Amino acid sequence: MIYLDNAASTLPAGEVLDAMGAAAREHYGNPSSAHGLGAAAARVIEEARAAVAAAIGAGGPGEIVFTSGGTEADALGILGAATRARGRHIVVSAIEHPAVLRTAESLVAQGWTLTAVPPGADGVVSAEAVAGAVGPDTSVVALMLANNELGTLQPVADVAARLGRGADAGRRPHLHVDAVQAFGFVPFRAATLGADTIAVSGHKIHGPKGAGALWVRPGVTLRPLWDGGRQERGLRSGTENLPGWVGLGRAAARAAAFRDGGGPATIAALRDRLERDLLAAIPDARLTVAGAPRVPHISSIAIGALPAEAVLHALEARGVYASAGSACASRARGPSHVLRAVGIDQRTAVLRFSLSRDTTAADIDAAVAALAAAVAEVAPVAMRLSK
Ligand code: PLP
Fold first, then answer.
1. Ligand 1 binding pocket mutation candidate from 97, 185, 200, 328 (most atoms within 8 A of CB)
2. Whole-angstrom Cα distance, residue 296 to residue 208?
3. Ligand 1, closest atom to CA 144?
4. Among 159-163, 171-175, 263-267, which stretch is predicted with the lowest mean pLDDT?
5. Catalytic residue among 50, 54, 328, 369
6. For tag attachment on the chain, is the N or C end more exposed, with fewer CB atoms within 10 Å?
7. Per residue, what are the HEC states of 332-386?
8. Is 167 in a helix, a strand, or coil?
9. Across the strands, what pairs with 92?
10. What is the rounded distance in angstroms from the CA atom of residue 214 to the CA atom of residue 200?
């Protein structure tokens, strides 16, 4: 099997699973309990928090709130800030993940107005356009660091600078950043990025599903999404997902070591090989977006007027797993909101190949051969059907 759908989810690392199993078996006490078992469990969570804080470049562990994943971290960052602020306008990029877009739309139903800033044809939103959409009533700006379908990096630091970080701190809007696809691949530091909140997720970095974190800039106050036992500094009630968060801590440390040890350049070289060989092997293929800086592990290829699903099935029959656009968009018909935003029409098939630290050159070569064969199989059928 050749797995090239790592932007959807990754294989959990053996050491992560071992740490989670050991934590679940040994630290079953409730971290809030006053006895020794509880205190030991609380200590283990604090170790995981410190690991995530170090990996994300936080000022300290107290800036990390554990969540049930990237989606909850996005919701807490956006709703937690918006519902505390006076302004009733929110600005997002039009290519945000549904975790951000739908959350922003939920505010519209409650009377907020929403501006969704479109990207250019290169899959990048202009920092000037984002800052230009901000008005006196804007309470939150949400911009992802890397897009999950295209891999394009968004100008978060530039937007932060334009929003006037530091100056008039009480008036400027809250800046929420979804870094789910960037974490482990892009060397940002939370403390200096210019964001107020940053969301990350465990299962994109060989950690567990259902475990994520929100970095919260010191001094920023958020309204919790729900109330209860007031765990996680009151920001997230509910008995802690200790094994999941231990797994996230281990995965984050691993991802940071990989990132800082030159891993992204190795993956980028494999991605470049994939793109070069695919474009040479398939006459109609082109990069969905070109020219913009990207994360190393995501490649989006438009392969011409073909049914993407049929190509994916033909690929899977050859042992290669990829996706059309993104996994989240795969249940919808037609191009996703992201692909539409960069001008992809209804008929064009777009495939996303996403690599991981486990991907090899042999995987890439086999995937290219499999895609060429899959397209050769599907194209004549598609042509006959379209006549
Ligand atoms: N944001 C982005 C950019 C993503 O790619 C994903 C994952 O699909 C999410 C948020 C949601 O994260 P999770 O699956 O942990 O809820």
1. 97
2. 22
3. 3
4. 171-175
5. 328
6. C
7. CCCCCHHHHHCCCCCCEEEEEEECCCCCCHHHHHHHHHHHHHHHHHHHHHHHHHH
8. coil
9. 116, 142
10. 6
Query: For residue 281, what are its two tokens?
Result: 């092997």
Q: Which residue's entry shows tokens 């600005």?
A: 91
Question: Which token pair is 137?
Answer: 């009533």
Q: What is the pLDDT of residues 116-148, one digit of tens each?
A: 999 999 999 999 999 999 999 999 999 999 999
Per DSSP bridges, beta strands 212-216 and 64-67 are antiparallel
CA of 69 to the centre of ligand 1 (A): 7
Q: What share of the chain is helix, strand, coil (3-state, %, to 5)?
A: 45, 15, 40
Q: Which residue has the tokens 């959990």?
A: 12
How far apart are the C-alpha atoms of 301 and 278, rounded to whole Å? 9
Residue 17 has pLDDT above 80, yes or no: yes
Describe the crossing of helices 242-260 and 263-281 by its angle, rounded to 10 degrees: 80
In 3D space, the residue among 56, 84, 13 whose CA is nearest the CA of residue 65 turns out to be 56
The question of whether 3 is a catalytic residue gets the answer: no
Residue 369 CA, ligand 1 centroid: distance in Å: 30
For ligand 1, whether the C-beta of 98 sits within 6 Å is no
| Ligand 1 geometric centre to CA of 54 (Å) | 21
Contacts of 381 (CB under 8 A, 6+ apart): 310
Q: Is the pLDDT of residue 109 over 90?
A: yes
pTM of the model: 0.96
Q: How far apart are CA 232 and CA 247, in angstroms?
A: 17
Which residue stretches of 118-215 are H helix?
127-133, 156-162, 190-193
State both tokens at 103: 């959350």
